[in-house]
Amino acid sequence: MRHTKSERLFLSAAIVLALCLCVPASAGAMHIMEGYLPVGHCILWGAVCLPFLAWGLVSIKRIAAEHRKAILLLAMMGAYAFVLSALKIPSVSGSSSHPTGTGLGAVLFGAPVMAVLGIIVLLFQALLLAHGGLTTLGANTFSMAIAGPFVSWGVYSLLKKCRVNPAVSIGIACALGDLFTYVVTSLQLGFSHPSVVGGVGASIAEFMGIFAVTQIPLAVIEGILSAVVYMLLQSFAKPELREIGMLQEVK
Questions:
Q1: Domain count within the chain
Q2: 40: CB partners within 8 A, 6+ apart
Q3: Per the domain annotation, does 12 fall within a domain?
């Protein structure tokens, strides 16, 4: 049986996803780990996520109704976020850093969509890979699937208006979205665990300094990789990109 280019791309993403699920992983401080936030904070972050999740569900419903050719590409963005965010690197404090993979999907489909895809990714990672936790799902969703994607989408929109090369714009947007995710994570951890000496401010600064050692190089790598993936999509998924309104970038 012969497959179209889009079907081959989707099958390849599914194979990569399956391989990742088969790799055992120890439970480290991937995202914010289980039990690391006070109950009140967990409830607060979960509540903050609800409007964005509702917005994302409406957006996905619209995409499914109006852009049926792009559904496979949408699924691939979820798989892309799963694979990248599952690649953890130990940080200097014994915690870990990782790419997020949510910026590219935000650029292509809009930031609200990634709130839904992101919480699905985080839920599967918490249940299957022991990455993050169920009580901290709201906090992790806000930092990785809401705050980061909105920054990526905003930066890309600004650079697009400035007529910057689309691939370069996507690379910069994804890198900054990745970094902002960890800025938000540092705020979440700082407010939950204020320093005895300097209070919340000192704690936030400490977490930012810890994450910066590994996260800045990772953000650069994610930006470059996302730009490369976009250029590959221009060759193999041009109809899908045209379907979602990226025609002006696809020649």
A1: 1
A2: none
A3: no
Whether 74 is covered by a domain: the verdict is no
pTM, two decimals, is 0.82
Mean pLDDT score of the chain: 83
Question: What digits encode the pLDDT tens for the residues 72-83?
Answer: 899 999 999 998
Between CA 216 and CA 206 the distance in angstroms is: 15
Express each pLDDT in 97-138 by its tens digit.
Answer: 788 999 999 999 999 999 999 999 999 988 888 777 889 999
| Three-state secondary structure string covering the chain | CCCCHHHHHHHHHHHHHHHHHCCCCCCCCCCCCCCCCCHHHHHHHHHHHHHHHHHHHHHHHHHHHHCHHHHHHHHHHHHHHHHHHCCCEECCCCCEECCCCCHHHHHHHCHHHHHHHHHHHHHHHHHHHCCCCCCCHHHHHHHHHHHHHHHHHHHHHHHHHCCCCHHHHHHHHHHHHHHHHHHHHHHHHHHHCCECCCHHHHHHHHHHHHHHHHHHHHHHHHHHHHHHHHHHHHHHCHHHHHHCCCHHHCC
Q: Report how far residue 122's alpha carbon sits from residue 68's, in angstroms, rounded to the nearest whole number.
A: 26
Nearest Cα to Cα of residue 46 among 118, 140, 181, 180: 140
What CATH number does the domain containing 128 carry?
1.10.1760.20
